[in-house]
Write a structure and sequence with these properties.
Largest sheet: 2 strands, antiparallel
Oligomer: single chain
Helix content: 55-70%
Order of helices and strands: HHHEEHHHHHHHHHH
Radius of gyration: 21 Å
Mean pLDDT: 90
Strand order of the largest sheet: 1-2
Number of helices: 13
Structural class: mainly alpha
Distance between the termini: 15 Å
Shape: globular
Strand content: under 5%
């Protein structure tokens, strides 16, 4: 195995900084609602602190586990099976906000779709390294990868969770492109997916209402356009310097999901354009350092896994920000490291731990025999 270096300090610092900033913003965005709903302003932030501590512990653990251990085909098969079963199990639980996305047991809840993003990155990295000599083969390489992605995305789509399904599709395209898949193969997957997405937007009434609200949210600002309008009012009222930490007004029962999916609007209102830009730049640094670690990895598994992890977190972050700014139609998807929710922050921090372990091998040469044996699962 290649000799280890120090982990990427930039990537580590950015991740911890985003996580701690998220904890602070969850308190600001949820304090008033928590006090009214649960009798204490610290209800949501204390729960988030527990999940954050668990996530950071798992990140430190993953940092110190050789990333090659994650390409064991037996473990991948077991985790894939468990994830599929979990995605099916959500339908046995009551709907929350009109969707079957949660498993609730013993007072705890989990969203399996969040785990599927990381699992997909691991699977694609393992399988594409295994098929490195047939990387352009449609039947041996592209179709199996597309089938697994389609299975996970399809189960999530019928929850329904269109946004997470879209994230999986985008990660699939990014990793396959980096691996060297032919453009016609990527087009073969993209065109039907785009047609399906258009069909679901047009023929599903509530999605069509969201699309109409996206085009002109002010036309029905008290109904279908309400969330978009409140989000834009929050961001716009922040101006350049913001109203000040914890001084935002839209979180006072005007902006729905202020401490979760729309927390970036609270950032814009309280910290202004400067705070919002700093946050975007920070996520950009995360993407840069993540991709750097991936492309300097000593083997294909590290490269593809690093690209998958960095892209899934960055794509989700910029998609969430785009929703809040009404650059794309409204879709409930959390802002990584910032939004409230253990199902989002714990898997994300664990994945970053794997990425940080990959960064410890950047620029080193792998030993062909060991890499080959590991790739074959022996």
């Amino acid at each position: 195995m290649a000799r280890k270096l120090q982990h990427d300090k930039w990537l580590f610092a950015v991740t911890v900084g985003l996580t701690l900033f998220g904890l602070v913003m969850v308190y600001s965005a949820s304090a008033v609602a928590a006090a009214q709903e649960n009798g204490t302003q610290y209800f949501y932030v204390m729960k988030q602190a527990v999940w954050t501590a668990l996530g950071l512990a798992l990140m430190l653990f993953a940092m110190n586990v050789d990333y090659h251990r994650w390409r064991n085909p037996k473990w991948i098969g077991i985790i894939l099976s468990i994830t599929v079963l979990a995605l099916l199990a959500v339908f046995a639980f009551p709907r929350i906000n009109g969707a079957h996305r949660w498993i609730r047991l013993f007072g705890l809840s989990a969203q399996p779709s969040e785990l599927s993003k990381i699992l997909l990155a691991v699977f694609l990295a393992w399988f594409l390294e295994k098929r490195s000599r047939e990387i352009t083969s449609f039947w041996l390489t592209f179709l199996p990868c597309a089938a697994v992605t389609g299975l996970l995305a399809g189960l999530i789509l019928i929850e329904p969770d269109f946004g997470t399904s879209l994230m999986l599709g985008m990660v699939f395209l990014v990793v396959m492109f980096v691996a060297g898949a032919r453009l016609w193969q990527l087009s073969l997957a993209t065109v039907p997916a785009v047609m399906l997405a258009i069909g679901m937007l047009i023929f599903v009434p509530w999605r069509m209402a969201r699309l109409v609200a996206f085009v002109d949210p002010w036309k029905d600002e008290q109904n279908t356009g309400y969330q978009v309008v409140q989000s834009l009012l929050a961001v716009g009222s922040g101006g350049v310097f913001g109203l000040g930490f914890a001084q935002g007004k839209q979180k006072l029962f005007y902006l729905p999901f202020a401490h979760s999916d729309f927390i970036f609007a609270v950032v814009g209102e309280e910290l202004g354009l400067i705070g919002a830009v700093v946050l975007v730049v920070t996520f950009s640094i995360f993407l840069w350092r993540g991709l750097r670690a991936a492309f300097l990895a000593p083997d294909l598994f590290g490269k593809y896994l690093g690209v998958g992890i960095a892209s899934v977190i960055a794509i989700q972050a910029f998609f969430n920000i785009s929703v809040v700014l009404s650059l794309v139609p409204t879709k409930g998807i959390p802002l990584p490291f910032i939004s409230y929710g253990g199902s989002s922050i714990v898997p994300a921090l664990f994945a970053v731990g794997i990425l940080l372990n990959i960064s410890q091998y950047t620029g080193m040469e792998a030993e062909p025999k060991k890499i080959g044996r590991a790739a074959n699962g022996r």
